[in-house]
Amino acid sequence: MLDQFDNRLDPSFAPVDRARLIARLGAVLPAGGLVTTTEGMRVYESDGLAAYRGLAGVVALPRDAGQVQAVLKVCAELGVPVVARGAGTGLSGGALPSPGCVLLSLSRMSRILSIDPEARTARVQPGVRNLAISEAAAPYGLFYAPDPSSQLACSIGGNVAENAGGVHCLKYGLTVHNLQSLDIVTLDGEALTLGSDALDSPGFDLMALMTGSEGLLAVVTEITVRLLPAPTHAQVLLAAFADLRHAGEAVAAIIAAGIIPAGLEMMDRLALGAAEDHTHAGYPRDAAAILLCELDGAEGDVGAELARVAAVCEAAGATSVRLARDETERKLFWAGRKGAFPAMGRLAPDYYCIDGTIPRRRLPDVLETIERLSRDHGLAVANVFHAGDGNLHPLILYDANEDGGIERAEALGGAILELCVAVGGTITGEHGVGREKINQMCAQFSTPEIETFFAIKSAFDPAGLLNPGKAIPTLARCAEFGAMHVHGGKTAFDHLDRF
Ligand SMILES: Cc1cc2nc3c(=O)[nH]c(=O)nc-3n(C[C@H](O)[C@H](O)[C@H](O)COP(=O)(O)OP(=O)(O)OC[C@H]3O[C@@H](n4cnc5c(N)ncnc54)[C@H](O)[C@@H]3O)c2cc1C
Questions:
Q1: The whole model's pTM is what?
Q2: pLDDT one-digit tens code per residue, 392-439
Q3: Which of 10, 77, 158, 440 has its CA at 20 to 30 Å from residue 116's CA atom?
Q4: Above 50 in pLDDT, residue 494?
Q5: Which among 108, 150, 435 is the best mutation to test ligand 1's pocket, defined by most ligand atoms within 8 Å of the CB?
Q6: Between 23 and 489, where is the model more confident?
Q7: CB contact at 8 A, 398 and 405
Q8: What are the Cα distances from residue 262, in Å, to 235, 249, 251, 356?
Q9: Model confidence over 242-269: pLDDT tens digits?
Q10: Contact between 247 and 288 (Cβ < 8 Å)
Q11: pLDDT (tens digit, 9 = 90+) per residue, 350-365?
């Protein structure tokens, strides 16, 4: 975490005459394809991490890949940085405008181009909303599996750039596992297709490299996603626990029993109470934690597996276990979970969502350590997360209007991420590094690893114009931050090695 105004992170580029840039872009975009006024550009000044804000030099709104190519060629020629933006729901400041940049919004490229029920694929433009793909595939009995909780709003292009996850990813894989091919445009305006209709392609897997590259390598202009047959039956079990440790142990035990749920999510007392107030899902308010465990497939198999999940939860100390009464209640249980982030507004003026991943078996210890850190830092933390993946989302509750409010939240967030690394996890599970976690990259990776990232970046974008100052820290930055790569040095969490 860091000061958003720390402009040492923004590499400096030679100043460009703004009027000339606008004239050049105006010549390659249709009327209304540029936003140049300060008020108009305010809409694009942050993503979902609203504490970080910046104004672009100009906002470009292309309608097709040809216009993206033309915009990028102008930027390459004039040496202007470019920040791609989907729906702006990112939570790591990935789409935060760099000073003077062209903010390339893909929101007008929002057409579903075709659905092929036989090949089970959908060809879509990058601005298509995640949920819209499953809605369009539903008449064919198909669906697109990765389902971020933001799926009503977030774009598939942003999902590719972040390698987004979601409730279903435990069983069906992340975005990277559900792609067939990508069309991209590089900074010099070259259009490439990565992947193919076949399950595998010769050569390096550049499609996988592009997925999760956070707009640093190229702009994604078309995506062919894989669709899956919609399960004939789905049922969700709600297990309540009197403490977090037992809930964490149940998660590890369910997976260890060889069960692969379609979703396995946890909410602690604070999160489930707020979600209950918000959605009235019927969660037990007196529980210290609940698990939502969904099974899907043939009805008989689902019933048998659910009985096993119930037995595992009871053995782990669940105080109650129950199934959704019907489809309406099943959807309500999930609506509560998916609305849990917005529900935080009931608890505090602001929340800061952390996204770290840990080995599942460390869940009980890590949840207890987060409780301790929360007390030490004097800030409440609500936990609502993809427990089956070990993907934590501690939501730090704070008030940005209080003196030092953001800084205290950031300090606690940084400590939680370092804890994740110390127990063998990672500093991001699905939200990306963006601007927010650039310092923690120094904790995660060694110097040679960071040099390799830069070598890959330079192969695609030698001038460093695509989304500069994001995702990969310079080595100077790491030195300044304290070169705290944990495999080489000590951290405040070394004591956790004993677990
Ligand atoms: C309430 C809430 C819940 C969330 N839940 C989840 C969740 O369960 N799982 C999850 O993974 N995430 C979740 N997120 C985070 C966010 O929705 C995802 O990261 C999503 O993938 C971002 O998509 P977007 O279209 O909003 O991208 P943006 O925020 O606009 O951009 C994200 C990054 O992608 C780059 N980018 C965008 N489009 C392109 C493109 N076409 N080509 C190249 N680069 C591009 C941007 O430069 C930026 O670096 C949640 C967010 C919120 C607010």
A1: 0.91
A2: 999 999 999 999 998 999 999 999 998 999 999 999 888 999 998 888
A3: 158
A4: no
A5: 150
A6: 23
A7: yes
A8: 10, 19, 13, 21
A9: 999 999 999 999 999 999 999 999 999 9
A10: yes
A11: 999 999 999 989 999 9
Q: How far is the C-alpha of 293 from the C-alpha of 320, rounded, in Å?
A: 14
User: How far apart are the CA of 162 and the centre of ligand 1, in A?
Assistant: 6
Q: How far apart are alpha carbons 49 and 68 in whole angstroms? A: 26
Rg, Å, the chain Cα set? 23
Q: Which of 154, 160, 214, 334 to mutate to test the pocket of ligand 1 (most atoms within 8 A of CB)?
A: 154
Predicted local confidence at residue 439, as pLDDT: 86
How close is the Cα of 420 to the center of ligand 1, in Å?
22
Mutate to test the pocket of ligand 1, among 44, 63, 91 (most ligand atoms within 8 A of CB): 91
Pocket of ligand 1 (CB under 6 A): 47-48, 83-91, 94-95, 106, 126, 148-150, 154-155, 157-159, 161-162, 164-166, 214-215, 219-220, 341, 430-431, 434, 467
Closest CA to 429 of 469, 467, 386: 386
Instruction: Give the closest residue (by CA) to ligand 1 atom 16.
Output: 90
Q: How far is the CA of 359 from the centre of ligand 1 (A)?
A: 24
Contact 28/74 with Cβ under 8 angstroms? yes
114 or 7, which is more confident? 114
- Interval 366-378 mean pLDDT: 96
Q: What is the pLDDT of residues 133-166, one digit of tens each?
A: 999 999 999 999 999 999 999 999 999 999 999 9
> What does each C-alpha distance from 297 to 220, 230, 236, 484 come to in angstroms?
33, 9, 12, 46
The structure tokens listed for 280 are 């009235």
